[in-house]
Amino acid sequence: MTRGEGSPRTPPRFTSLRTLPFFICPNCGNRLQSGERTAGLSGRPKGCPKCGFGFLFELLDDYYPAPDAAFFTCDGKGRVLDVGRGGFELTGLTDEDVIGRSVKDVLGLEWIDRGDAGEESDTNGDGVTDPIETTLEWGVRSLGKRVAVHAEGDLPAKATADVFPAYDDDGGMLLVLTPE
Fold first, then answer.
1. 92 CB burial (10 A radius; 0-12, 13-18, 19+)
2. Domain span holding position 1
3. HSE of 47 in the Cβ direction (CA atoms, 13 Å)?
4. Distances, alpha carbon 131 to alpha carbons 56, 118, 121, in Å
5. pTM of structure
6. How many C-beta atoms surround the C-beta of residue 116 within 10 A?
7. Across the strands, what pairs with 175?
8. What is the rounded average pLDDT of the residues 67-79?
9. Please, which of 4, 28, 161, 164 could form a disulfide with 51 given CB 3.0 to 4.6 Å?
10. Are 114 and 170 contained in the same domain?
11. φ and ψ at 69, to 5 degrees?
12. Are residues 45 and 98 in the same domain?
C-alpha cells in the first residue's frame, strides 16, 4: 500500500470542493467556501474573515453578486437588521434610518415578478405572494425577480432581486438588489 491510500479496512477520504458550502457576507460581499459552519467549539455562526461582520449567509450554490448590488439583512418577519454593502448607494438610507422597519415598506418594493408560492404564503393578505413572502414562508431562494424600488418615496429604480433564506433558528433572509 502506498502512502495516502488509507488502511486496508478504511477507504480513503476525499473532500470534493463541490460538497463544501458557499457563504456570502452581507456587509462586504465577500464570498468564501468552507467546511466550517461555526467558529470553534461554540454554536456561534462563522463571521466574515475579511471585514469581521458577525455572520454570513450560507448559499446552496455559488453566487456572484454584481459589483453594484445592494444587500439588506432581515429577520424572520422581514424587518431590516442591517443595510449592507451597496444599500446606501442604491437608496440613500443608513442603518439608523431603517433598522427594525419592514424592508417592503422602507424600500417601497413594487414587484413586477411575483413569488412562486401559492395563496397560503400571502402573509400580508394583499392577494398576491411576493418573493419575500415565498422565501420567509417556505425557506427557499427566489432568484432573478424584477422589482421597482421606491425607497422612502424616492423616484422608482428598477432592480433585480435575489432573496436568500437564513438557515438558522431565527429564519431571516438576505435581500440582494441589483440595479438595472
1. exposed
2. 1-64
3. 9
4. 21, 11, 10
5. 0.74
6. 15
7. 72, 163
8. 92
9. 28
10. yes
11. -70, 145
12. no
